[in-house]
Amino acid sequence: MTALRFEARLRDVVGRKRVLLSDIWGVVHNGLESFPEACDALLRFKREGGTVILITNAPRPADSVQRQLRKLGVADEVYSAIVSSGDLTRHYVADHPGGKVFWLGPERDNSIHRGLELTLSPLEEASYIICTGLYDDETETAEDYRPMLLQARERKLPLICANPDIVVERGDRLIYCAGAIAELYRELGGEVIFYGKPHRPIYERAMQLAEQHAGRKVAREEVLAIGDSVRTDLAGAHGFGIDCLFVTRGIHSEEFAGIDQLDPASVKELFGHPPRALMRELKW
């Protein structure tokens, strides 16, 4: 294992990579504002013939993610396509038509079940749970849901986690996501099905989209993942057999403050499997 230093620019990292699988939250925006230099970097890569697939654990379908990006000033031209954990969750629901579903999440995520054949039901009547997040992620933690999850476990209800993230940036704060609830349910002995990073299906779908846009088969060696989470972005890329550029401005920013280079021992401690490179923020 070798030392890692921070790279200043994406163009010094991509080499022969022709496809970027870029995280959104923490890389392209922080939930409140977009990062213009990151958007510019992805756009420049595209203009040089590359393909950019935004790969996100957002518990909403891709068109809803796109609307949010537009509101934050991220132009459609910045990327080639979007794949979300919400898309994959919707595929699960479509494959189980007519089910009674207990939906756990904020009202803003209601597009997760838009147009699907299901019945929203109370926990006592549901056949499974779809979790898109906490009802109030500004004030609640997963522990607030322990009694509900114990009840669900007694009924042996599967929980479909539409966002495996534990926390995410919102401005300068970290807020809890559906993954925090799912992990607690798993600790309590409940069955959890995860859709999104670091799990393989979202990468397989991203590669399908990349090959459609490239018009050819794409080798794993041509793909670079970009993300800010060790648990989801880095672990997912490693598990799928692709390189990862790790951006430290996101949820791990405090751990990297004041560090210019990581020695091999620190690399192993922080990452386990090291990324291809480090950047503080995405720039071309």
Automatic annotation (TrEMBL):
GO MF: hydrolase activity
Domain of life of the organism encoding this protein: Bacteria
Matches recorded under InterPro entries: HAD-like_sf (IPR036412), HAD-SF_hydro_IIA (IPR006357), HAD-SF_hydro_IIA_hyp3 (IPR006356), HAD_sf (IPR023214)
This protein's UniProt keywords: Hydrolase
NCBIfam families linked to this entry: HAD-SF-IIA, HAD-SF-IIA-hyp4
Protein's recorded name: TIGR01459 family HAD-type hydrolase
Phylogenetic classification of the source organism: Bacteria, Pseudomonadati, Pseudomonadota, Alphaproteobacteria, Hyphomicrobiales
